[in-house]
Amino acid sequence: MSVDRLFDVKNAFYLGNYQQCINEAQKFSAKNDEERLWRDVYMYRSYIAQGKASIPLSEISDKTSLAHKALRRFANFQNPQQRYFFFIKRYQYVPAMSTKNFNLLTRILKLTIKFETFEEKYSRHRVAQEVQAEVTEGKLANDETAIILAATILNQSGNPEDALRALFKSTSLESSAAKVQTLLKMDRVDLAVKALKKMMEVDEDATLTQLALAWVNMSLGKDKLKDAFYIYQEMMDKYGQTPMLLVGQSSALILQEKYEEAEKLLQEAQLRDANNPESLINLVVISDYLGKDAEVFFLYILPSHPR
């Protein structure tokens, strides 16, 4: 098996270590156009994940490869406000949440909408409609990056069905992991398990496969929650802590009702990335379970909205 020279770049991205991914990409010396392209793909996706969509928009030309065009479109779709909106919606169904803290989540959502311009909302809506049309009409570009980013846009727009249709155009490990995520969003754990088994047949030890295994274990619940916890722990022992891994591990603890332990992990995630929406929302939820006033976490979102 040939060595993947871009392993460090890709792996940092998969683990949510976006700055490390950017650093690795910037020092990577590409030997050919294909390596140069994939280096750019993960570097620019990391910038977008950091809320710096302006960088790929300013550096990527309109007249370029399918992958670069997909990156430009994804950058146009993404913005910090959209990330908060997406993750807040996930937690509005939390049972038995106090009225005060539920109202806090609603305030964050309203703040998100307040600071979003009409142009931003229209731009996202236009991009989502464009992607949906390409998928339903069978016109989505046959390009790995275009497929992954199209599925991401559709999932974040609340359209997992079309996201899944897009992903079936690809057989890569990353698209397979995205299929698992999408099926879990659709509450099709049975199909997610089947998709995971196919990933394990390809590469059981791959980072993406192990992450997908953790997601499935958390959906299965019960004893599998401990397995998910240890998967995240093994990854942190091997690659170091990242906000994404800390949030994942905290989610496994929350589902086991180990709220105080989960709170410590989320506080560490916040120290590493104060703008991480998953850790912020999880902290609000945990505060409610612990009977704490979650009002203080409302302050975390304010620096992200300078307008």
UniProtKB/TrEMBL annotation:
Protein origin, superkingdom: Eukaryota
CC annotations in GO: COPI vesicle coat; Golgi membrane
User: Biological process GO terms, please?
Assistant: endoplasmic reticulum to Golgi vesicle-mediated transport; intra-Golgi vesicle-mediated transport; protein transport; retrograde vesicle-mediated transport, Golgi to endoplasmic reticulum
Family matches, as InterPro entries: Coatomer_esu, TPR-like_helical_dom_sf
The entry lists its GO molecular-function terms as: structural molecule activity
Topology with respect to the bilayer: Peripheral membrane protein
State where the protein is found.
Cytoplasmic vesicle, COPI-coated vesicle membrane; Golgi apparatus membrane
Broad class of the protein's primary localization: membrane
Which keywords does UniProt give here? Answer: Cytoplasm, Cytoplasmic vesicle, ER-Golgi transport, Golgi apparatus, Membrane, Protein transport, Transport
Instruction: Provide the function of this protein.
Output: The coatomer is a cytosolic protein complex that binds to dilysine motifs and reversibly associates with Golgi non-clathrin-coated vesicles, which further mediate biosynthetic protein transport from the ER, via the Golgi up to the trans Golgi network. The coatomer complex is required for budding from Golgi membranes, and is essential for the retrograde Golgi-to-ER transport of dilysine-tagged proteins.
The entry assigns this protein to a family as follows: Belongs to the COPE family.
User: PANTHER family this protein is in?
Assistant: COATOMER SUBUNIT EPSILON
State how it assembles. Oligomeric complex that consists of at least the alpha, beta, beta', gamma, delta, epsilon and zeta subunits.
By what name is this protein known? Coatomer subunit epsilon
